[in-house]
Amino acid sequence: MFVCDSDLDCLDGSDEVKCDASKMHNNTDGQQKMNCMAPRKLCDNDTKCISPAQMCDNRQDCADGSDEPRRCSAIAASRSEANGGKSLLSSCEYPNRLCDNGTKCITMQQLCDATADCLDESDEGMRCSEDLCAHSFICSHECHNAPDGVVCSCPPYLHLQADRTHCLETHPCEAWGVCSQKCIPRGSRYKCTCVDGYVLQDDGFTCKSSEMGRPFVTFSNRHELRGVDLHTFSQKSFISSLKNTITLDFYHSNGTDMLFWTDVIDDKIFRGTIVGGSLGNIEVVVNAGLSTAEGLAVDWIGQNLYWVESNLDQIEVAKLNGSFRRTLVAGEMESPRAIAVDPRDGYLFWSDWDNSAPRIERCSLAGLDRQIVVQVDHFIKGGWPNGLTLDYVMRRIYWADARSDSIHTCDYNGNDHHEVISNQEFLSHPFAISLFENYVYWTDWRTNSVMRANKWTGGDVMVIQRTLTQPFDIKIMHPSRQPPGKNPCGSDNGGCSHLCLIHLNGTYRCDCPHISRSD
What's the N-to-C CA distance of the chain in angstroms? Predict the structure, then answer.
């Protein structure tokens, strides 16, 4: 359809060479004119012939612009009205397909039926003559020939799965990783949508955050805190000349970001505000009594700071300024390591390397209702659950295991387990893990690198940055990583004199400090 149409579709012009002269004739002015049969139309001073599909398709096919006149908006409205107010793009669902520049929707039965149902003839030709369904075993049930191969379908009592080849009794929305966020069943098919604050991309799968602000991969490597801009992949050092920084987290508020980090040699927890790409207003928030603070988490709703004391086998809490510090959880811990919080639900999660029972536990942010949610050695032999992060949209736990060199996920209750990635060259001793949109990020000790991979399949592995020394903790600094939620402590500190700690189901508990802050 592109050859001899008076339009240079090929850069070398080979599509308009040796064209049949019978397609042209002289007009009354002696100029050559295309033989253009209805319903096609002439343009460009009668030297080009276009199809109806090329009219009002928001793409200028004629140099004189006559294919996109002002009345196009009325034509588009009439097309939408004829389709019940819906655009064909949204209503023509697989296995049906669009043709004629998106102006017509045809069924799979109209493909390769020896009748050109599309003016652009895209429903016929190409591989139709090969009758691939007679020789292919790609489809588990019903097969239909198509110009680009085959199209699979299912009998009424089964559902076509996301791979578009297999039919099962379960709906594809019940399968792992079918949609980036929300999966809406539509009969035997489905549509992907996004939660508020995210926008569905052109692939119909990916949800991108609509929050302002650049996402930064922020990580520690003993002597500095570094960041990598995920839009440009440019690198920067937020602060250097540190002694031995292990863990970090951030607090986003009113368009500004505050970083918190620990230094196990200084025996302190620090915080600073990012100003102009560097860290300023640095101050100490916890200045004594630390042993080995390996895990750190900011409750951005209740505005409290939680950390794991690995050597003391306990979890502590304080206000964001370090005041009203107290021990929150203690006892029945062997080697606690990583910590993560979701204050919207009131949850605090932590990992434990316990040789006899490696696990992930959960309690409320008030330290109550403690329970084991993942027994790690049920999925792998042994187990060192090193890194821990949360998918706040899907309400899932992701953890990295440093013994099996693998990454796993399950829901907040420990159900629906999936192994995301294992036996990967750059996953040889993960220390910490984080997550943003489609990707899971981790730091690796053996390769001295910061990595990412697809959070469903483990594919699309990419090196974010190589480091000269071992990288430790990692966080993705972006507003979407601290989603808003109801704050039961928001009014007058919940009426508490000291600590107001979020509990479950939108409730809270008042608590008292065990250790006074020394200035």
Answer: 80
- Both tokens of 63, joined, read 């140099």
Q: Is residue 19 very low, low, confident or very high in pLDDT (cuts 50, 70, 90)?
A: low
Q: pTM of the entire structure?
A: 0.74
Question: Given this model, what pLDDT does residue 38 score?
Answer: 58
Q: Which has more pLDDT, 172 or 476?
A: 476
CA–CA gap between residue 273 and residue 305 (Å, rounded): 16
Using pLDDT thresholds of 50, 70 and 90, give the confidence band for residue 373: very high
Concatenated DSSP letters of 270-337: EEEEEETTEEEEEEEEE-S--S-EEEEEEETTTTEEEEEETTTTEEEEEETTS-SBEEEEESS-S-EE
* Sheet with 449-454, side-by-side order of all strands: 430-436, 439-444, 449-454, 462-466
> Are 195 and 212 spatial neighbours (Cβ–Cβ below 8 Å)?
no
3 state DSSP class of 165: coil
Confidence at 8, pLDDT banded by 50, 70, 90: very low
Give SS3 for 14. Answer: helix
Burial, 205: exposed, middle or buried (Cβ in 10 Å; 0-12, 13-18, 19+)?
Answer: middle
What's the CA gap between 476 and 229, in Å, rounded?
Answer: 10
Q: Contact at 8 Å (CB) between 431 and 402?
A: yes
AA identity, residue 396: R
271 burial via Cβ count (<10 Å: 0-12, 13-18, 19+): buried
> Is 365 exposed, middle or buried (CB count within 10 Å of its CB: 0-12, 13-18, 19+)?
buried
For the four alpha carbons of 165, 193, 409 and 221, in that order, the dihedral sign comes to positive
Rounded distance, CA 322 to CA 342, Å?
20
Q: Where are the beta strands (DSSP E) in 120-244?
A: 142-146, 149-153, 159-160, 167-168, 182-186, 189-193, 198-200, 207-209, 216-220, 225-229, 235-239
